[in-house]
Amino acid sequence: MKNEKKVFTLTYGCQMSERDAETITEIAGQAGYSRSEDLDTADLVIINTCCVRESAENKILGKIGELKKFKEKNPNLKIAISGCMVQQPGALERLKKRAPHVDIWAGTHNLHDFSSLLQRAERGTKVAEIWQEPKVNSESAPLAEQGKLQANVNIMYGCNNFCSYCIVPHVRGRERSRKPEEIINEIKDLVASGCREVTLLGQNVNSYGKEFLPSYDFADLLRDVDQIPHLLRIRFITSHPKDLSDKLIETVAKGDKLCEHFHLPIQSGSDLILQRMNRKYTREYYISRVREIRKLVPNASLTTDIIVGFPGESEEDFEQTLEIMRLIHYSQAFTFMFSKRSGTLAASMENQIPLDVKKRRLQRLMSVQNKESLDWRQGMIGKSYEVLVEGPSKTNPTRLTGRTRGNELVVFNGNSNLIGSLVNVRINEAGSWTLVGEIE
Ligand code: SAH
Ligand code: SF4
Fold first, then answer.
1. pLDDT value of residue 144
2. Neighbouring residues of 409: CB distance < 8 A, sequence distance ≥ 6
3. What is the residue-averaged pLDDT of the chain?
């Protein structure tokens, strides 16, 4: 009897990238490949890539290089590289030269066509296909592994914002929203298979549906998804501050399953840098949006993304970033050193900041944020929070783990039959990253 073929998938980057990896892996599944956690026994390896920062690219290039010896050991192994890195203008030729052992190269716009690439590769042909633009309806039916407690759901693709540092609009194309009924049907199917929490994904969810007539915006979508029976929680990322409407904040305040968590990337606390980043809001405007959130959703957690060492960032600009972090009290921040991305405006700006300065600023920023995160978590001690039980804790499998509505990770004792349900947990201890509590 012929052994079953196996696929091993690695994915890098944001949730959108994870979502794409899910679709490609499912397509491989339909072609007869079962999922494997073991690279050694795989017949197909998929690496779904990210190019948002140079550090991610270097890591991925290292990984692709490592696959060469696996191919030497097993010449029948097929290697597929997909996603943002491949889609970058001019990248394919460079990548192909560097990694001739790769069988399939696929861009971001044609991942739904992966089965035909796979068939050609199985017949021994090396294939590379990168569409410059998405084709109509090519994105309408993403595939997901059924039966998982949590799922990511794309509500839109692409980005129109062209922040001056960012490669995403160059590799993901222009903004396009999926139809509400398509999204709602996908979520209903997921729920029927056991899913209880969805995260709605877009580079800027607040501009969802801009082109729809009659008008139907992101707040309308949230309100409708909130009505889906048996779904317990709804999250969304990412909110661009410039488009965060009062209507959206009110909808979250009123919603039943809508989690009180806003990921609202600020990027910098300096108006000068924000302008050079092309973020289209000022520091004051951002603060006024946060005030509105705190007024209508007083218990909301706020998280953010910050870049240090953007070209021309002075010590004073950086101090303004530190100051705003202390002012806002984020529960968590994702902090990055500016990375030059070829083809973006910021890559050719004057006054690039030396690496040692960037590193020092990142260290200072992280130490401010670590204190903020700890303060936030310590403020939760003694209070009780609704937690969706996700499974055994990774660090201590005899305990359970789950998240609050604010997306804070909690560890507690309990019976595994609680997995998938909501429990109330009183918080007893707080570390920088996790909370320890007990079921009430
Ligand atoms: N659409 C989302 C972000 C997608 S990229 C938004 O606008 O918030 C995720 C994060 O990576 C960004 O928020 C930014 O902080 C960081 N990032 C993007 N390009 C970068 C670059 N060239 N260098 C360093 N960080 C970058
Ligand atoms: Fe990049 Fe800005 Fe678009 Fe986010 S909004 S993906 S940071 S260009």
1. 76
2. 401, 402, 403, 433, 434, 435
3. 94
